[in-house]
Amino acid sequence: MAQFEEVSQKSAYGTAGFRTNSKQLDHVMFRMGLLATLRSKKTKATIGVMVTASHNPEEDNGVKLVDTMGEMVTPAWEGYATQLANTEQEGLLTALKDVIDREAISMAQEASVFVSKDTRPSSESLSQAVLDGVHALESHSKGALTLGFNYTLIFDCWFELQKLVSSYKQVYSFVPNRTDDQKALLVDGANGIGALKVCEMETYLKKELQLSLFNDGSSGKLNHLCGADYVKVQQKGPIGVEMSAGERCCSCDGDADRIVYYYCDSIATLISTYLKELLTQAGLDLQIAVVQTAYANGSSTRYLEDTMKVIVRCTETGVKHLHHAAQEFDIGVYFEANGHGTVSRKPTCTYLHTNLENAALLLQNTVNLINQTVGDAISDMLLIEAVLTIRGMTVKQWDAIYTDLPNRQLKVKVADRSVIGTTNAERRTVSPAGLQEAIDSLVNKHRQARSFVRPSGTEDVVRVYAEADTQESADALAHEVSLAVYRIAGGVGEEAKPL
Ligand SMILES: CC(=O)N[C@H]1[C@@H](OP(=O)(O)O)O[C@H](CO)[C@@H](O)[C@@H]1O
Ligand SMILES: [Mg+2]
Fold it and tell me: Phosphoacetylglucosamine mutase AMG1 domain: which residues (predicted)?
């Protein structure tokens, strides 16, 4: 934000809030407690604060604010968060007053803040620091305070497990004769919060879905050799899970807001084509679109646009961008390649309830399985299971819908990653001078190739993505592009590392 440029940016509110080693976060947490209280007063609604570093190592932690409808806060409030996190102690009061004035906040307004944490050991004291921030502000104002403290996951309060379970049972009743093999699903809980949720749900679904839980947190370390990120980036199965041929397996990440099914990343394709079929069968003329980021495999984009005739949009990385773009359509399906996502629908789509044709009924129950707030691995898992059940599809048939182009992701360390400016949903760079031209000429040397670079919003690195007709070609292109980044954008240390 322009008005904050003078602040030296020690930490910035990135793609998923603040994230770093847990030892450096006490003051940030306290200040996010202050800011959440102000946001709640401003909106006259409950604001969530989630203490988590998701898929990052157990030693890290982080914090993100969750706005009134479950979405990320607006760019202006992200700017305030960055401002507060970087202000020296003596300037804190002035910085707070600045937010209060700019937003014309009435301090007499009651505040309601809901704090959640993941299973990291540091989350205990860091979430307490958030609460301290909330209390500190409230003791200096006349406002009353209601404070929720949720020890598990934020979706507990907005989306009840029972509703998910009963919608799944309804969908299942359309296809009751599933074999035991078809009902079996191996779930990697990443030793995190998703494992606790699966444990809770397992007993209710015995008849419809046989869940076997691995990495349940009883012994292993959070995200270590397991979880969605490990599986996606390393292209390996999680520790402790022995898969036999054709078995379905999925992994949550550390805070269970995303899911990966093996060996495919085509969740959006599976769901959008299924919903499109149901809409046609039910005779409903609703617009359905898939929102992707530049990381979506080129083959999936082509399949959706050319074969399925589904509208495809591309946005910047991070669910907040995808979510907003999806909301412009009657039904918006969005999943990042790494498993973050959901399906949103316009409120007007609730008229589905009035049509009791079979297809519409199925559609209604399917839609009830969807948690429209940003990111819920358990709801996503049940939605995918429902679609596979109804379509009688094996995981192999799903994988065969289209073939991913071979791809590679690398990261490059540079002195200041903000020198990389991007445009066109991060698919092209506008600075530093000469970088895009260099990427273009490298891409031209490969077949069916595409490559882009962007500064990460969660790590101090530049990310490089490349895809091409063969794995060798994708690897070579990613390497060549990362060398160009290193040379033109001020690389430091090691040249490039696998993501
Ligand atoms: C390439 C990639 O996987 N990027 C991830 C990662 O963002 P970066 O801005 O790339 O660091 O973390 C985000 C938050 O978890 C997630 O939404 C996003 O998809
Ligand atoms: Mg996560």
Answer: 184-260, 265-391
